[in-house]
Structure to design on (682 residues):
């Protein structure tokens, strides 16, 4: 069993009691709510005549179904309008603060929590969404839950859980130019498998993680679940504290210093014990893209797509099916794979630094004539900040659509969907068949600058070659 | 009913599930496959059963495709046999809700994604694991004997069919919850409200 890790410390601080099931009853410091997974939970509460126990520790936003083009009410999609109305009613009845689009704070739940300073180190954070691990970037213990568990949290302020093991993932060295946190996490998933993290919480550390900004750390923690780990975290440090200082929900002055002392105290001890340690040399990485239909089916941009028969027996069948769906051949690289859509968005990669990096590639270039390019900022605040820097103009001038905030084409619950067998270069987190709204659609996961590169060339492209590519074309 | 607490809601003892089986083969079957996102635009779970595995069961014109859930011989099945990492991806409880509403009461697999297994437990659906060899043999048996009962024994941690007894594993907490009928965690935890307040008050961030 692990000892002295952030996970152990935060767990202990939030433990209420042991339940007859053997599970621990854990207090929840922040419960984030969105429209898709919560209505049934509020319904169950009502059926039992129960009230929300800690409305002040609960915060709601709307993201999955919200249109990113015309956001006027009522929404043109009746089902979306019904879900929005239901959420409005539920939060009003319970007295839960709600970042509805008129507040200027609306956005993807995993973007708005951190940017408002709701997310803090040493907290337990839950949300009915598997990408809740994102908040672990701050040294919080954050994980996704199902709707019945949302009912638990609403009714009791707690969650029933079993303690997990802790795996330290040490990313050594410095990332090369053009290599991003997204490439790190896609490498972790590829190496350890989509189920490698089952039963574990991942602690990310090492030089490469230490040198990352908060947006990068969030991208990494965000995709822990794609590796099977329900939670992932980074120990809080000066980068974390600097990010938090001055945010809406973070106290100032002496109160800040007191909280900071708590934050520092929960970081893993130097002699902490882990159940497993894995080391990845960050300096050896190149941009990673997926060739298949699970996030674990990724390769470096210069690597060859593996032949199914060369993979372990239990991976061969799904690789074969994936390659047929994607129309890729073993022995080829992914470079040159033509795309129809370029999607910049999602809780993984739609923060201001993500948009900046993509804009730097796009600037002065044009979206390829056969490509539909979509930029969907993670929140209204990200959008406003990007516009203040003129990023919207860079994207618009190049031919991208500049949209409102939401989950959008990451899962295609609003109108933003792939059509037919379109191929999409996507900064999102899942390349499952049908994920982006069309069951024949194809998704290639990659970093924001790589999406930008694919958008302008019309094909999967090593962003580091883009200058040269331009010269060749000219 | 087992719970002695009147507020315990629907908690029930689940020691064993017996019924005919249905095999759904393949590793890494994700929740987007089990229930595509467009069917999540609902405010209740009612009627989700018909959409289970929708995109692999129906073509663009909604004509049925080859899939075990479409086959007459598997209609009425209550034990689902699956392979590795079943239920990976999104946390949507809509996935086990859809399977349950289609008729599934227990799932036997090589391994399960954690959030999915937790969601199943919240519905009283056991997620029982067995070796790859044993699961594949079970799937073959069901294929050949769609009318035969499969017994999922949570207490003995066994899956029984024909003359075969498979050594299975039920996670400790899951077993206790199902066998003692204490998987309604809202009632369990609600009873400790005072202790919860103490824990909350002891945290440095709750008073600022």
């Amino acid at each position: 069993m692990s000892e002295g890790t952030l996970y152990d410390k935060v767990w202990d601080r939030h433990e209420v009691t042991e339940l007859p099931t053997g599970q621990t009853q854990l207090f929840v410091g922040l419960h984030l709510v969105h429209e898709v997974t919560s209505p049934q939970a509020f319904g169950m509460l009502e059926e039992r005549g129960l009230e929300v126990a800690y409305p002040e520790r609960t915060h709601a936003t709307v993201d999955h179904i919200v249109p990113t083009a015309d956001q006027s009410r009522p929404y043109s999609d009746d089902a979306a309008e019904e879900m929005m109305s239901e959420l409005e009613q539920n939060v009003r009845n319970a007295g839960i603060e709600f970042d509805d689009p008129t507040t200027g704070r609306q956005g993807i739940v995993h973007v708005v929590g951190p940017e408002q300073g709701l997310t803090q180190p040493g907290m337990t954070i839950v949300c009915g969404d598997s990408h809740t691990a994102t908040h672990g970037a701050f040294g919080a213990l954050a994980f996704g839950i199902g709707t019945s568990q949302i009912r638990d949290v609403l009714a009791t302020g707690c969650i029933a859980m079993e303690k997990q093991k802790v795996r330290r993932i040490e990313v050594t060295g410095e990332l090369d130019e053009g290599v991003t946190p997204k490439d790190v996490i896609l490498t972790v998933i590829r190496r350890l498998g989509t189920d490698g993290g089952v039963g574990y919480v991942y602690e990310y550390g090492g030089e490469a993680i230490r040198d990352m900004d908060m947006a990068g750390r969030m991208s990494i923690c965000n995709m822990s679940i794609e590796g099977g780990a329900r939670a992932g975290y980074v120990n809080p440090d000066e980068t974390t504290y600097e990010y938090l200082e001055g945010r809406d929900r973070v106290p100032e002055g002496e109160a800040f210093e007191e909280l900071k002392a708590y934050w520092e105290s929960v970081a893993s001890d130097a002699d902490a014990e882990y159940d497993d340690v894995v080391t990845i040399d960050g300096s050896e990485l190149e941009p990673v893209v997926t060739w298949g239909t699970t996030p674990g089916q990724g390769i470096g941009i210069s690597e060859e797509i593996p032949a199914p028969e060369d993979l372990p027996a239990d991976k061969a069948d799904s690789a074969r099916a994936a390659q047929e769906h994607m129309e890729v051949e073993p022995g080829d690289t992914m470079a040159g794979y033509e795309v129809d859509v370029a999607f910049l968005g999602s809780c993984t990669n739609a923060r201001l630094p993500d948009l900046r990096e993509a804009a730097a590639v796009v600037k002065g270039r044009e979206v390829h004539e056969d490509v539909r390019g979509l930029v969907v900022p993670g929140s209204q605040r990200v959008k406003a900040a990007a516009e203040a820097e003129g990023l919207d103009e860079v994207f618009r001038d190049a031919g991208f659509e500049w949209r409102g905030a939401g989950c959008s084409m990451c899962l295609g619950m609003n109108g933003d969907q792939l059509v037919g067998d379109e191929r999409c270069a996507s900064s999102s987190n899942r390349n499952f068949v049908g994920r982006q709204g069309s069951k024949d659609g194809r998704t290639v996961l990659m970093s924001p600058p790589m999406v930008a590169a694919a958008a302008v060339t019309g094909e999967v492209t090593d962003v580091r070659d883009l200058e040269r590519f331009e010269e060749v074309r000219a | 009913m087992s719970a002695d607490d009147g507020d315990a809601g629907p908690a029930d003892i689940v020691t064993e599930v017996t019924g005919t089986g249905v095999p759904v083969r393949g590793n890494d079957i994700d929740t987007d496959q089990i229930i595509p996102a467009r069917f999540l635009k609902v405010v209740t779970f009612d009627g989700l059963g018909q959409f289970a595995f929708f995109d692999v069961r129906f073509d663009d014109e909604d004509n049925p495709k080859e899939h075990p859930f479409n086959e007459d011989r598997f209609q009425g099945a209550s034990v689902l046999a699956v392979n590795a990492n079943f239920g990976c991806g999104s946390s949507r409880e809509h996935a086990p809700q859809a399977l349950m509403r289609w008729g599934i009461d227990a799932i036997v697999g090589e391994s399960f994604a954690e959030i999915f297994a937790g969601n199943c437990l919240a519905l009283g659906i056991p997620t029982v694991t067995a070796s790859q060899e044993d699961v594949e043999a079970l799937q073959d048996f069901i294929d050949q004997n769609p009318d035969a009962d499969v017994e999922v024994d949570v207490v003995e941690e066994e899956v029984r069919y024909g003359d075969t007894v498979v050594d299975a594993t039920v996670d400790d907490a899951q077993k206790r919850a199902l066998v003692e009928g204490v998987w309604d965690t809202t009632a369990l935890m609600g009873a400790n409200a005072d202790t919860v307040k103490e824990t909350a008050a002891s945290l440095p961030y709750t008073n600022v």
